[in-house]
Structure formats: C-alpha cells, structure tokens
Write a structure and sequence with these properties.
About 70% of the residues lie in helices and about 0% in strands. By secondary structure, the protein is mostly helical. The protein folds into two domains: about 60 residues, no CATH class; about 30 residues. Pfam families: Phage_tail_T. InterPro entries: Phage_tail_T.
Amino acid sequence: MTVSQLSSEMTSQELTEWMAYDRFDPIGGFRQDLQTAHLLYEKRGSDDKNIFDFLPVDPNPMTDEQRAEVERVKKIEELEVQTAQMIAMFDSM
C-alpha cells in the first residue's frame, strides 16, 4: 500500500491506534518466532528444555561472562532448594 492510498483509506487516529497495538503486541518478527518456538516445544520439548531453547535468535543477548553468571546464580538457587528439601526430610525423621 502506498502512502497516498494509506492516507485516503485510514485516519491518523486509526494509524496511531495500530502503532500503539503493534507496540503492545507486535505483529511479525519476534512474535512469529515465539509462536513457532511454542509449536516446536510442544512437539519436541521435554522437561529439561523450555520454549526459549527453540527460538532462532536469543531474545536476551548476553556476553559469555554474563551468561555464566546467570547460570551460576541459577545453580546456587537450585542447590539451595535441594538443601532445604534435604533439611526438611531429615527434620521429619
């Protein structure tokens, strides 16, 4: 659609509303990737995977150091949960 056609068929208010909607819920691009990733996750996913493992691009790009820190913190949190479960188990004996 050309700018001239768009101007004659859509008011500026409607265009503004579409622009706001696109910011709220983008059409195309990442949204399509996310929908495809969801389908792949449902088809091929398992307990050790999540939907972001099926995205073709990383929605939250990080350096290797940042990613390592995130993984380290995640592992600490998992170990703390396991420790709490173990303590609860021994306390109930």
